[in-house]
C-alpha cells in the first residue's frame, strides 16, 4: 500500500504538477485543483501503470488518496504492495 | 476608413529554433534546416524540417504541457514571446477586449494519430480523455491559448490549409476594424511532421524526393526544385488598433495596411495556372492599402519549391510588377513549409525586414528555369533594403490566396 501511495504521489507531483505538500492520505482528489479531465487522465494513467481494470466511476472527486491507493492495491493484488507492476 | 492595425509584437517557433532571433539568424545565413527523420521512415519521404531542442517542460509557459498537442505547445511558446515583445501583460489588459485568431491546417494531428494507434493497440479503456481536447482544431489552435491567458473576447480557429496563418491575420484585422476588440493575438501553428501527414503528402506528389540530400531539398524558384519539405512551427503577431498602441506608448513595428483573400475555384490542390486568384488578391489588398504595384518594395513569397506554385507565383509577380520589380524572397528554403504556420511566420519575418532593413536570401536557389526567371529574387546573402511597403503571399490547398500588405511604421 505504501509503495502504491508513493507511486500515486509521484504521478501527481511529476505528471500533474500538484505541490507535494498538498498530498496526504487524507487529501481528497477534489482538493487537488485538477480540472474536469484530469481525474479521468489520472485513472487512465494508474490503469496503465499497474495494468489493472480501474473503472472510471471508482475514481470520484470525494475519494481520498489513501482510499485510491487501497482500490489500486485491491486490484493489483497483494504481491504488488512491495513493488511496482 | 477603418483604423489601421499596428503590429507591436512578434513570436516564433520554427525549425531554426525557438524565438524570433534564432529564426532570423538562420534565414539570413540562408542554410537549410531539413534533416532525415527516422520516425518518418514509414512514409515514402522521411526528410522534414522540425523544431530542434524543443522541451515542453522548459519552453511552454503553461502547467502540464504534456496535455497539449505539439502544435499547441509551439503556439503557447510563440504567443508568450510575442506578448513580451509587445510589452503586454495579462494583468494590464481588459480580457474582454482581446481576440485570439489562430490558423492551422491540421489542428492537433499528432495527437489524433497517436491516439488512434493507442485505440487500436489497447482498446478504449486506455484512450486518454485528453484526446479530443488535444486534436480538435479550435482547441489545439486557439482555445488552449485563450484558457491560458484568460482571454474572454472572440477566440477563433481559421483554416485555409497553407494560407491559414495569413488568413488569421486578415480575420484579426477585420475584428479590430469592426470594433470587436482592441488587441488581437493572430498567427498560425502546425506540427504535421508525422508519419500519416508525410505519407499523405508524398502520395499526392507534393514533397521533394531529394531524400539523399535533405539540405538541398527545399529550393524555392530553383530550376531543379521538385516539391516542398514538410516543416512545423508557430508564429504569433500582436495586432492592436493603432490608437490603442499609441495610448499605451507601444511603438509599432509595422502597420497592416491591407489584406485580401480570394479563391481559385480551379482544382482541389493545384493553383490556377493563370494565377487569376493570386493576382486579384494582390490588387485587392493594395487597393485597401491605398497603394499601387509601383509602391511595393518587397515580397515575401509563398515560394514552396513545388513546380506549380513557384511557376504561378513568379508569373504573377512578373505580370503585376513589370517595371518596379520588388525584391522577392522565400524563407521556405531554410525553414521548409510550416503549413498553417507559414503565413504567420512569413508575415512576422516581413515585419522584421521592414524594421531591420534586411531581406533574407532564398536558400538553395542556384538558377531559375523559364517559369521562374524575371523576378528579383534575393539569393546568397541578405540584401540591405528599406522598403516602405511589403507583401506577404500565402496560398493553400483548396485554391486559397491570401495577401497581406505591411507598411513600415
UniProtKB/TrEMBL annotation, chain A:
- One matching Pfam family: PP-binding
Could you tell me which residue ranges the Carrier domain spans?
2-76
Q: What transmembrane ranges does the database entry give?
A: none
Can you name this protein?
Answer: Acyl carrier protein
TrEMBL record, chain B:
Residues annotated as domain Ketosynthase family 3 (KS3): 2-408
Q: Which PROSITE patterns match?
A: KS3_1, KS3_2
Q: Name one Pfam family in it.
A: Ketoacyl-synt_C
A Gene Ontology molecular function term of the record: 3-oxoacyl-[acyl-carrier-protein] synthase activity
Which keywords annotate this record?
Acyltransferase, Transferase
Q: Which superkingdom is the protein from?
A: Bacteria
Its GO biological process annotations read:
fatty acid biosynthetic process
Family, as annotated: Belongs to the thiolase-like superfamily. Beta-ketoacyl-ACP synthases family.
Name by which UniProt lists this protein: Beta-ketoacyl-[acyl-carrier-protein] synthase family protein
Q: Which organism is it from?
A: Streptomyces klenkii
